[in-house]
Amino acid sequence: MKLFNDVPLAPDDAILGVVESYKNDPRDEKVNLSIGIYSDAEGKVPVLKAVKAAEAYLFEHSGPRVYLPMQGLGSYIDCVQKLLFTEDHELYQTGRLATVQSLGGTGALKVGADFLHSIKPNSKVYVSKPTWNNHIAIFAGAGFEVEEYPYFDPKTKGVDFAAFFKKMEEIPEESIVVLHACCHNPTGADLSTEQWQQLADLFKARNLIPFLDMAYQGFSKGIREDAEAIHIFAAKEMPVFIATSFSKSFSLYSERIGALTVITSDKEEQERVTSQLKIMVRAIYSSPPSYGAQIVHYVLANDQLRAEWEAELTQMRDRIKSMRSKFVELLNSKQDKIDFSFINDQAGMFSYSGLSADQVAKMKKDYAIYTVDTGRICIAALNDQNIELAANAVVNVL
Ligand code: LMR
Q1: Residue 350: which H helix or E strand, with range?
Q2: What's one GO BP annotation on this UniProt entry (predicted)?
Q3: What is the CATH number of domain 15-47+306-397?
Q4: Candidates 33, 35, 255: which one to mutate for ligand 1, based on the most atoms within 8 Å of Cβ?
Q5: How many Cβ atoms are within 10 Å of 232's Cβ, its own excluded?
Q6: What is the pLDDT of residues 318-376, one digit of tens each?
Q7: Given 3.40.50.2000, 3.40.640.10, 3.90.190.20, 3.90.226.10, which CATH number is that of 67-301?
Q8: How far is the CA of 37 from the centre of ligand 1 (A)?
């Protein structure tokens, strides 16, 4: 059709495109280490026991499917705020948190980006170099100019904090800075407590706007520990944007369940901000789906299920750590060109392996091991059955 004559074929998504080619690969022995999805020791994506219990309850008590309010399920929003800050926190107690349910962490970023663009269209958005590829697409799509700030140092395999901090001293006031609250995606390199403190002081002094993406809460040190950066910024009495996702921590990827929370200065401001967030939601998808929100609410509001969920999350975290050390052992015992011990120091689901795009392509072609072009490997998808295959492939392409 003439209308579409000039429509170009879009390139594959850097992450989801790899999943598609993995699915289309006819080879029997193939391993997908691309997308950030946790699989258990048997290679299956788990349905958590706490989630199953919630589903059983919801099945028995299902009601009519009327629309949720634009901001989402009230009881879910309450749980999200308490999970982020605890019930005793002043921000919760005084109603200063503007929260809307969102379609996963991506939806939270999108609603926040649209809202920020409506109030600060001339601000620039800064993302870490490297970052999750969708950060750039979401903020550029909302109309912002997006730039990178220095973050990862390939030599030390850690954060180049001096360069990062210097950039934050130089960018214009009221710039929006996207930060990874924990388990930096893709590098697994996080800031120390002291570095977060220094950054938060600088942001406060320079009126920079932090947008903390927390897609992996519980996958580094624990639920409370992984929210440390958020608490450090919150203590500075400044506007803070937080994108929460339960895709990974509840293994609820396809339910698209997340939340955007904005810290405001008082209840009246919170009401104004929430009213605007609702308008953003209305214009994108009207109101969110309810199933994932009901599950998360049911689990978090029930002491026993919540404890069960935390225990399951701990198991996931521990299994990833054991896969990290096993992978390092295998890689280091099979070659002596590179010391892969740094993989043990990275936090979260991923390892930023240092493999080049060419090496990644060779692993796919010759060994049916799929990972992302940047060399990011999903450690959470390794298990005793596939880890040797993956390690051999890496060693053979070095
Ligand atoms: C990832 O980084 O692999 C995940 O966050 C999934 C995604 O949507 O890209």
Answers
A1: strand 350-352
A2: L-phenylalanine biosynthetic process from chorismate via phenylpyruvate
A3: 3.90.1150.10
A4: 35
A5: 20
A6: 999 999 999 999 999 999 999 999 999 999 999 999 999 999 999 999 999 999 999 99
A7: 3.40.640.10
A8: 8
